[in-house]
Specification:
- By secondary structure, the protein is α/β, with parallel strands linked by helices.
- The protein is built from 16 helices and 14 strands.
- It folds into two domains: 341 residues, Rossmann fold; 124 residues, no CATH class.
- It is 38% helix and 16% strand.
- Strand 13, helix 15 and strand 14 form a beta-alpha-beta unit.
- Helix 5 packs across helix 14.
- The protein is globular and about 70 Å long.
- One of its GO terms (biological process) is proteolysis.
- GO terms for molecular function: serine-type carboxypeptidase activity.
- Pfam families: Peptidase_S10 (PF00450).
- This is Carboxypeptidase C (Cathepsin A).
């Protein structure tokens, strides 16, 4: 996941806010610790481990380490912690992949222990609970058999920390452009320190990490002098401007969300297939747009739109009619499960939790998946770092999801820099391969937004430069075994091509 911090149901995708009472408590505290009072971070440490991938045993080295971030005067202003998995004795041609999650405010634990790392902990699916034992097991869908892996925790997440005061931290780290600059330098520094500049390099990012990935690739190409062989964007947040709000004029926010709502209904009926989704996607790009632009004053067009949207979403026809066929995410997640007194998750609308306040006019709880994943991922990662690796961090909490970072983030104006940098990075390098992967049911970063963007991309003279893969599941589709296996196979193809 996302992610993310991940997205809450009522806000801009890829940005999560805590419940209101939590938000108030966070605002009273300074999101920047006084790091001068904390013990120094330990020296890098490694352990030898073994896992089984695709039925074969693989020996590797797991390293937890840190890299400094320096300002223009050479002063260290932050320390970035990473977890790396490398296969000893491999040739210089062995690829290395750098992984980023999103938020902003999420550590890389989700891609690490959920998607592509050599070990995993269960989280994010229906039935998973915060009290489940946070025990790691071999990940059969790991990518470690075809690429080394480096998971990077941005400043303020995991154990990574700023050494500056609150204002300087926000300026230097908690904004879109500075974030890309220093994280690209971290990638470069890791490559130099580990003598891996000759290796093929790949970047993977999830959710807001999908915003980071193409921008980091372009920064590496054009500023750091490092070529990138491939990009993988998982449930990416690529076009903030298209979903930044409803002004009543643009059909885009409604278009982007509707197919994922329809996919969730089809999955509940056991009918979710690409073939069954194709006419829904076609409707969304054609008749839906025509009827939308006709406006509510055109009763024939509006009735036609309402009838179709009610059919696709499964929501009560009277409710859809009251909203003129414009179903927002919050309404879909609550009303679709109100009869069971449950709420759906924005990350996978078919993953539900009991609504603690079912009689309230407004939803008063945080996202079901977002609340459920924090305990297993935090406990499993801290146990791995401190007990398995023996990287002894004293006086520091591991921030898997930092609401403080998310609150402090300077979002600026919604921009299209990820798409712009993706276009330029591909144009610069005719050998670069790209995968954009989504889950059908994700409403935080819906697949249809990426589909529309890809359809507007140039051809670049080579077929299939950008692959759009859609899997059963939601934002973290990879937690489903079938989807995780299919995702691994699709990714392996661009590494071996």
């Amino acid at each position: 996941m996302a992610a993310t911090l991940f997205a809450a149901a009522t806000i801009t995708p890829a940005y999560a806010h805590p419940p209101k009472d939590h938000a108030k408590s966070e605002q009273k505290s300074d999101p920047q610790d006084d790091s001068s009072k904390l013990p120094p971070l330990p020296a890098d440490k490694s352990v030898d481990q073994t896992t089984v991938i695709a039925g074969k045993s693989l020996h590797y080295k797991a390293t937890v380490g840190k890299l400094p971030v320096r300002n223009s005067d050479g002063k260290i202003i932050a320390e970035v912690v990473y977890t790396a998995y490398t296969v000893p004795g491999a040739s210089p041609s062995r690829p290395v992949t750098f992984a980023f999650n999103g938020g902003p405010g999420a550590s890389s634990v989700y891609l690490n222990l959920g998607a592509i790392g050599p070990k995993r902990v269960r989280f994010g699916d229906a039935g998973d609970s915060p009290s489940d034992a946070p025990v790691l097991s071999d990940n059969p869908h790991s990518w470690l058999d075809f690429t080394d892996l480096v998971f990077i925790d941005p400043v303020g997440t995991g154990y990574s920390r700023s050494l500056e005061d609150k204002d300087k931290t926000k300026k230097d780290f908690y904004a879109n452009d500075p974030d890309i600059k220093y994280l690209s330098r971290i990638v470069y520094d890791w490559l130099v320190q580990n003598q891996r500049l000759r290796s093929p390099k790949y970047v993977i990012g999830e959710s807001y990490g999908g915003y980071r990935a193409p921008r980091i690739a372009y920064e590496l190409q054009t500023q750091m002098g490092v070529g990138v062989s491939g990009l993988v964007m998982v449930s990416p947040y690529l076009d903030p401007a298209s979903v930044s709000g409803d002004n009543g004029l643009s059909p885009l926010p409604w278009m982007i969300n509707l197919p994922s709502m329809a996919a969730a209904k089809l999955e509940r009926e056991g009918k979710l297939t690409a073939a069954n989704m194709a006419p829904i996607e076609n409707y969304t790009q054609t008749q839906f747009v025509t009827d939308f632009f006709a406006g509510p004053k055109d009763k024939v067009a509006t009735d036609r739109l309402v009838n179709k949207v009610a059919e696709l979403t499964g929501l009560d026809h009277a409710l859809v009619a009251k909203l003129n066929g414009r179903i927002d995410i919050g309404t879909f997640l609550r009303e679709g499960h109100r009869a069971q007194k449950k709420i759906g998750s924005v990350y996978d609308s078919n993953v539900t939790a009991f609504d603690p306040f079912p009689g309230s006019a407004e939803r008063k709880s945080n996202d079901p998946i977002l609340n459920a994943i924090l305990a297993p991922t935090t406990s499993a990662m801290v146990d791995f770092i401190t007990r398995t690796v023996g990287w002894d961090v004293k006086g520091r909490h591991y921030e898997a999801l930092s609401y403080a970072v998310n609150e402090a983030w300077d979002r600026g104006t919604p921009d299209d820099k990820p798409v712009e940098d993706l276009r330029k990075a591909i144009a610069n390098d005719p050998k670069m391969q790209v995968i954009i992967a989504h889950g059908w049911n994700d409403l935080s970063c819906p697949f249809f937004g990426s589909k529309l963007l890809i359809e507007q991309m140039p051809g670049y003279g080579v077929a299939d430069r950008i692959h759009l893969d859609i899997f059963p599941g939601g934002h973290m589709f990879y937690t489903r075994d079938d989807s995780g296996a299919a995702f691994r196979n699709d990714a392996k193809a661009i590494y071996t091509r």
